[in-house]
Specification:
This protein has helices at about 5-15, 20-30, 35-50, 55-60, 70-85, 85-100, 105-115, 120-135, 140-150, 155-170, 175-185, 190-200, 210-225, 225-240, 250-270, 295-305, 315-325, 335, 340-355, 375-380, 395-405, 415-440, 445-450, 455-465, 510-515, and strands at about 280-285, 305-310, 365, 385-390, 440-445. About 60% of the residues lie in helices and about 5% in strands. It is globular, with a radius of gyration of 24 Å. By secondary structure, the protein is mainly alpha-helical. The chain has 2 domains: about 1-135, Alpha Horseshoe (Serine Threonine Protein Phosphatase 5, Tetratricopeptide repeat); about 250-525, P-loop containing nucleotide triphosphate hydrolases (Rossmann fold), CATH 3.40.50.300. The protein contains 25 helices and 5 strands. Strands 2-3-1-4-5 form a 5-stranded parallel β-sheet, with helices on both faces.
């Protein structure tokens, strides 16, 4: 039987659900040099589908993309690598696809979207441009992708032009309205508001796009200071989105109880010195989302020798790899139960391998995934030289910043006043306990104090973290692939302090929910 016939037979077995026969066929093909990369790709897919992350990773990393020219296999390899947390290898596969002759335009555009979803805007735009050169016809989706990633890179004028081009091509393309609203463009706002009102009036709350359009409408109306109409839009947006997501307050409470129960044990297991550590030093910057974490990170990196590496999911991904338990990019009780001290040491080693390359020539790097506070105790136990910054903010402002934001597939607690208040309280208690246990390894910063004295607070943070001062501060042109992408370009400002008071009457249930958690009344005023 020829290798081609073997491949066809294995593919047929996979298609018809005869997985054992498919596996046997693909393993046989590993000995055929020309078919081995394809077999590794299929074996990686099947392993991950079975929940075996370690085997899936081994197979995809066995594919040498430097020797490949087949566009479909390069695109598949990039997708598999990114799904398994092998970002560096995934980017290498995408770079090879960029150079592959005769790569189809649709495949290039699809991979550009994949890289955008993984917060790699530079690589995404390069592939999108290559797709255009290969004959991709402009569509609302491609123009939106262009505008979104230019926003991440801080090219806001070009981003606006691309987003407006997307709307011209398809006025029904919902994500474009949200991205334009985040750019806070006064020109054309009235027309956008009229269009949004017409659209949401004709849509049921159950439609997938309804919450997104309503959040867009809120931000446009809020920017115009039409508060009553803005609140009406936001209230419906929250209700509609809450009806579309699954979130359990009881499960959230149980997760934090599990974290608190393990925190003392983790502190005892934590390594007391940095022996054996090499390479750039990791810093985690954590906090509730939309509470100033991005501007604080950017300020530290501008003044001190540390690389801004974005919002990485690598630590939880490596927890899942070591435990060999597939699941979401946030911890759950089953994952926490599956790891012991020896496992955490391996998690720390793999985290370094998968994150430190982003530091370049810098001696330190800042991982600014806000929800790393959920695994901060584990990370401190896993890496003796890890330091962390915890951003604290007035609880009303913190919760308000969550409630008014469209988060897509994240932070499902943020669409209900009571649920966001209880998550805020759990966060506050948890990080306070971690600070008590870990002392100087965690430095706290109040957002209000930071915006009041940014230079002094930045100097304090850098010194406390033991970072090297830059001879010359760098400009704030870093990639910001977060919801703060446009806002952070405006620099440090106190304009968001007390922002919740614009809706003080409507947010009284939020204030009461925070008080019900035991929050101090002065903190909620």
């Amino acid at each position: 039987m020829s290798v081609r016939e073997q491949w066809i037979r294995a593919e047929a077995a996979r298609t018809h659900g005869r997985i054992e026969d498919a596996l046997a066929g693909y393993y046989d093909l590993l000995g055929a040099a020309e078919m081995a990369p394809y077999a590794h790709a299929r074996l990686s897919e099947l392993a991950q589908a079975a929940g075996d992350l370690q085997r899936g990773t081994a197979h995809v990393l066995a594919i040498d993309t430097r020797k490949l020219r087949e566009p479909s296999l390069l695109a598949l390899t990039a997708r598999r690598c990114l799904a398994l947390g092998e970002t560096q290898a995934g980017l290498a596969a995408a770079a090879a696809l960029l150079e592959a002759p005769s790569a189809p335009a649709a495949l290039l555009a699809e991979t550009a979207k994949l890289l955008s979803d993984h917060m790699e805007p530079g690589a995404a735009l390069a592939l999108l441009e290559r797709a255009r050169q290969a004959g991709l016809r402009e569509s609302a989706g491609s123009a939106y992708l262009d505008g979104l990633n230019r926003t991440y890179l801080g090219a806001l004028d070009a981003a606006r032009a691309a987003l407006e081009r997307a709307l011209a091509l398809d006025p029904a393309f919902a994500p474009t309205y949200w991205s334009l609203a985040k750019l806070a463009i006064a020109e054309g706002r009235g027309m956008r508001v009229d269009t949004l009102r017409r659209r949401v009036a004709a849509m049921p709350d159950s439609h997938p796009n309804t919450p997104l359009l309503l959040y867009s409408l809120f931000h446009e109306l809020d920017a115009d200071d039409d508060r009553d109409a803005a609140w009406t839009a936001l209230e419906r947006a929250m209700q509609a989105r809450r009806g579309q997501v699954r979130f359990s307050d009881a499960q959230d409470d149980a997760l934090f109880a599990r974290l608190d129960a393990s925190s003392t044990t983790l502190r005892t297991a934590s390594r007391s010195n940095d022996d054996g550590e090499s390479g750039p030093r990791p810093v985690m910057l954590v906090g509730m989302p939309r509470t100033g974490t991005t501007i604080i990170e950017q300020s530290i990196c501008a003044g001190f020798r540390s690389a801004s590496v974005g919002e990485l999911r690598d630590f939880v991904q490596q927890m899942r790899w070591v435990a060999n338990r597939a699941g979401p990019l946030h911890p759950d009780i089953e994952l926490l139960d599956a790891l012991d001290g020896d496992g955490l040491a391996k998690v720390g080693q793999r985290y370094r391998t998968h994150a430190a390359w982003r530091a370049g020539d810098e001696p330190a790097y800042i991982d600014k995934w806000p929800e790393n506070y959920l695994v901060l105790g584990h990370a401190l136990a896993a890496m003796g030289d890890l330091r962390a910054v915890v951003v604290m903010r007035n609880p009303m402002d913190a919760c308000w910043s969550n409630l008014k934001e469209w988060f897509g597939a994240s932070y499902y607690y943020s669409y209900d006043m009571g649920e966001v208040a209880r998550r805020q309280a759990r966060f506050s208690r948890h990080v306070r306990r971690l600070r008590d246990l870990h002392g100087g390894r965690i430095v706290a910063v109040d957002y209000e104090a930071f915006v009041g004295e940014p230079r002094g607070e930045t100097a304090r943070l850098g010194a406390t973290l033991g970072l090297e001062t830059r001879e010359r501060p760098v400009s704030g042109d870093a990639v910001v692939a977060t919801a703060s992408a446009a806002q952070v370009r405006k620099g440090v400002s106190s304009r968001s302090v007390g922002a919740w008071k614009r809706y003080v009457r409507q947010l009284e249930p939020l204030r009461q929910a925070l008080l019900d958690t035991g929050m101090d009344e002065d903190a909620c005023g």
